[in-house]
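quick one
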Amino acid sequence: MRKQKANLLKILKDNNLTSPRHKLFTVNYEDIRSGKVTDAYFERTHRILETKKIKKRVRAEFTAKNLPSGWGIFTGLEEILGLFEGLPINIRSVPEGSVFKPFQPVMEIEGFYNDFDLLETAVLGLMCQSSGIATKSARCRIAAGSLKLLSFGARRMHPAISPMIERSSYIGGCDGVALVKGAEVLQIPPVGTMPHSLVIIMGSLTSALKAFDEIIEKDVPRVAIVDTFGDEKFEALEAANCLHDRLDAIRIDTPSSRRGILSEILTEVRWELNQAGFEKVKLFVSGGIDEAEILNLREYVDGGFGIGTSISSASVVDYSMDIIDIEGKPVSKKGKLSGGKHLLRCNDCFSEEVIPIDKPYGDCDLCGGEMSQHLASVMENGEKVKSLPSAKEIQNYVLLQIDRFSLDLK
Ligand SMILES: [Zn+2]
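structure w/ zinc ion:
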């Protein structure tokens, strides 16, 4: 890998392709932090308030109302806290990876409005897109049960945001990610099988498999793609006969124009592999997979699914930010509930309640367990109040909640 990178860099340098004219249409952290990534009406509001010397302390709350199946997974907090570091504001938030319901506050910023008004556009973008991806990934996890889910969809989106996509997919419940840089950010090994291009360039499945087996590290699973030139059943047998016990799985990625009834193809491949004594070779499916397709195919698949576009291009969660309190006085636009709030969650039964922030609360009405502030302080005066969990810890939290809330796809 290091050698490949060095070669690529040399090609770029030799051809004078590393100059700044070859740019991406992206912004960097400083552009966002300085308020350049903002909608014009916030910039105009900012200038009006500054000119009129109006500076008011507010609470601004983040909520979403339209969620598939009535729940979502909140992510984006780590990037958001990085954006606010050093600013004179306080933030309360639910933990990253929290399951949330419509209208529940997931985050609240408290401070002078002028100090964060130019960041609203960026904060929403960070929160809305990553939460949408994590929510879709969690939906696929629910559909898949204990089958493996791999995130293959970075290629469908702008490469500059691919690590965020992979992190959100992983947090939502994918077991692994294909993108090398995404895996590096997550501190896990990248996963993958074998592209059609390897089979085409090597000339046959057998040549490709032998080369893969010879060159690639022994701890990387041997997964043969079995639909490049021939029939899935016969290529599966060819792969098994080529690698014998070293073949871990076959992957079926048949184009939709040739799929026919995929469940029957899978049944047939399983049958023939078993007939030939290759019961241990797993079946893995990719191509156009979403939670509905997982439900259709999961009884025919014993390996897992590679999921691309449906997760990486998931619909965003439409959070909005609304002022709910000015100078300690509850106020909000119509359609929103005014005033700071506690979002309480029972430590035992996970029941939840939203109450005004100044209202005292006791133990859980349902089970008598202790209620704790789920929306809790995470930043005070621009400083994080505690260290943040790892992506793996956040994923474990998501999986725990899927179970405890008995989340479904209705
Ligand atoms: Zn309870």
